[in-house]
Amino acid sequence: MGVITKTVRAGLLATVCGVSLLAVSAPGAYATGMPQLDFANPLVTGQVMWGAIIFFVFYLVLSKAMLPGVARVLHDRSQRITGDLEVARSAKQDADKAVAELQQARKDAMAEAQAHLQKVLDEEHRAADQQMQEINARLASEIADAEKNVAAEKARALSALKEIAADTTQALVQRLTGVVPDAQLVARNVESASAHRSII
Question: Which portions of this protein are annotated as coiled-coil regions (predicted)?
Fold first, then answer.
């Protein structure tokens, strides 16, 4: 309201100054052929006075009745704009805060997922190592059993081979010489030859 009132007052002052200037320059203007500026004429003076009164009344009506309403409207509009700006600023701060919380939650979720994945991988690695150890132990046991079985089969085969060798030697000697050799002597000689060959 203060700005509008000051503007109207400035306009009124400019009008008064203009009228005063016209009054000062009126004799010269009248002399050059402008009778509307002849202030010696009562009609011109009355028109100027009525114009000033009408302007003053118009100023009073504007300043007392219309300008306060316009000022209220401008003030309300300014308050509403300020309130809307505050609401928008608050909403932006809330949105920024929500975005920051969302980013932090995303980072936390990624870190938690990475930790969980690492934990699962470690557990799987430990389980695989344990399973591999069990498989190696089972294979070692099976290999040891197989070696024992092979050694036993080898011993049986050698024992049977010695018997076959003794029987074959006895049969050859009997066929070549016609004399039946002593079975124990043949067995001892075969055993001695077998032991000698094993040592070599």
Answer: 85-163
Decide if pLDDT at 194 tops 80.
no
pTM: 0.37
47's tokens? 């028109």
